[in-house]
Write a structure and sequence with these properties.
The protein is an alpha+beta fold. It has five helices and eleven strands. It has a five-stranded antiparallel beta sheet. Strands 1-2-3-4 form a four-stranded antiparallel beta sheet.
Length: about 220
């Protein structure tokens, strides 16, 4: 089984107008820890709701969905498949599915639980970054600071997600003025086997990339 990670997401972070100096007397990993702490605090305090488009390329065919966040769970609507609009039959089925969701409290409750579980797992993985990797300053990019990372040999993973994460090399770009994450990118440089390959494996070369930009004041 071959798997690859490809995530492209737009979030928030403002850049500075001039070249940012490298932080003085701040170890790279401590800077990342500071940024991670700030990001998690900002996430916990953000109760806004958004509407956005989500494109999934794996598995094929490519599917684009419209996502509307609500206090009762996210409402998703399939918008096109491989760049083509839905057929009348597909659109009717999607309308019925969405109508069923907004009228079914149990479905909404399940969506909230699933969303909360995903958020918790994401936060746990994100909080591991300063311990999972060793970071090094790699210069400035515009008004931000770039750091490269590679696996920390002293890190011990306790979940399959953390185990895969630890096999990556890459870089992060941070806004040191606001302690915000601008971009993070990684590549799976080592193959990963689950139960000696019995439950599958991930080949080297899988990537992820998250880029963030300000979409509204403070977001």
């Amino acid at each position: 089984m071959r798997a690859a990670f490809l995530i492209t997401v737009l979030f928030s972070a403002a850049g500075m107008a001039q070249q940012a100096p490298l932080p003085q007397n701040v170890a790279p990993n401590e800077l990342v820890r500071k940024v991670v702490t700030h990001e998690l605090q900002a996430e916990n305090q953000d109760h806004s709701h958004w509407m956005y488009r989500s494109e999934a390329r794996v598995p094929v065919p490519v599917k684009t969905k419209i996502v509307v966040e609500t206090k009762n769970g996210d409402v998703t609507y399939l918008d096109d498949i491989d760049g083509h609009p839905l057929t009348p039959q597909q659109k009717s089925a999607e309308d019925q599915r969405v109508q069923h969701f907004i009228n079914d409290p149990q479905e909404q409750s399940k969506a909230r639980r699933d969303g909360a579980a995903d958020d918790k797992k994401s936060a746990q993985l994100f909080s591991m970054l300063p311990d999972t990797f060793l970071f090094e300053y790699a210069g400035a990019e515009g008004g931000n600071v770039r750091l490269t990372f590679h696996p920390n040999p002293n890190f011990t993973s306790h979940t399959s997600e953390a185990f895969v994460l630890h096999k990556m090399d890459g870089f992060v770009i941070v806004n040191t003025k606001e302690d915000r994450l601008v971009e993070t990118s990684g590549r799976l440089t080592h193959g990963v086997e689950f139960a000696g390959g019995l439950f599958g494996h991930l080949d080297p070369g899988g990537t992820f990339d998250v880029r963030r930009e300000e979409v509204a004041s403070g977001h």
